[in-house]
Structures are given as structure tokens and as C-alpha cells.
Amino acid sequence: AVADMVDMFVLLIPPAGGDDLQGLKRGIIEKADLLVVSKADGDLLPAAQRVQSDYSSALRLLRPMNSLWKPRVMRISSQDKVGIDSLWEKMCSYRDTMNAHGRLALRRQEQSRVWMWNHIQNQLIMRFKESEAVRNRLSLTEESVSRQHITPGKGAESLLDVFLRST
User: Residue 166, class by beta-carbon neighbours within 10 Å (0-12 exposed, 13-18 middle, 19+ buried)?
Assistant: First the structure.
């Protein structure tokens, strides 16, 4: 997930994105440290204000992921140069708060563990797919699974056995 790759997860929200609380449905705002409604200018300003209000209300219903930081919703306009300095101040405040309590270092440690396991998974999958023994059995196994002669789990176990015996 993106939140596992960054120090601060900032969710940018357009003011006219259709289902305004779609991020809530997908669980993404629960991971955000800061929510920013962009393009809050011109004809889109009323929509941006409404989106900010909607997301602010939604955040009140959620438990913050971090006891040191309460996510906020703010509006910015690069066209009118509004909110950019305030956005930067919030980002610096987050960094300073997390650093002061050692949370940024802990987050980076956890990210390193996640990255290690992601690398292991990627390498295993790559080597699995490159295995000649697996390639020789793959089509037959996929066909057996597709025709429901064997379960997907049984097909996977069969291919894994072939892979492990060949390494």
C-alpha cells in the first residue's frame, strides 16, 4: 500500500470527483495523515468547500491511526496560491511531531520490514514463473483447475511442490 512507502500519507481529493466519499468506502482515508482538497478556486470553490466539509465530518467518525496526530482536511488552490503555505506548515508539523516522539523512525523500520517481505514475494514469484519445471506443468494444471477437475488450492500446491523439488 502507498501508506507503507511514505513518511506522511497525503490524500489529494479533487472537488468534482463524483462520489465524494468514495475514499471512505475503500478505506483509504483511514490511512491518510492529511487530506487535501485541490483546485479550490473559481467555479469549483463551492464544490471544494462541500467536499472539505463532507470529509471533515467523515473523519470525526473514524479513530485516528496515530494517537499523536489527528488527520485534517484542508483546501488548496495552486491557481490562486491559497493554502500552499498552510499545507507545507501542516506537513512540517507532522514531521516534527513524529520525530519528537520517535514515530517516524519506527515507521521507517516497519517500512523496511514490509519492503523486505515484498521483495521476497516478488523474487519468489519471479523465480517460480521462470522455473522450467513449473512452466512444463503450468498449462496442464491451469486447465485442470479451469475444468474444475482439481481445486485452485490443489493446483497451487501441485505447482509449488514441482517448484520446490526442482530448486
Answer: exposed
Q: Under DSSP, is residue 10 helix (H, G, I), strand (E, B) or coil? A: strand
Contact of 11 with 32, CB cutoff 8 Å: yes
Residues counted in the chain? 167
pLDDT over 60 at 149, yes or no: yes
Phi-psi region of 81 (alpha: psi -120 to 50; beta: other; left: phi over 0): left
Q: Which cell is 122 given?
A: 516478488
Give me the pLDDT at residue 62, please: 86
- Is residue 95 within 8 A of residue 55, CB to CB? The reply is no
pTM: 0.76
Which sign does the torsion angle of CA 17, 18, 19, 25 carry? negative
CA neighbours within 13 Å on the CB side: how many for 83? 17
Q: Which amino acid is residue 149, in one-letter code?
A: H
**Helix intervals (H) in 77-131:** 84-100, 103-130
- pLDDT at 20 > cutoff 60: no
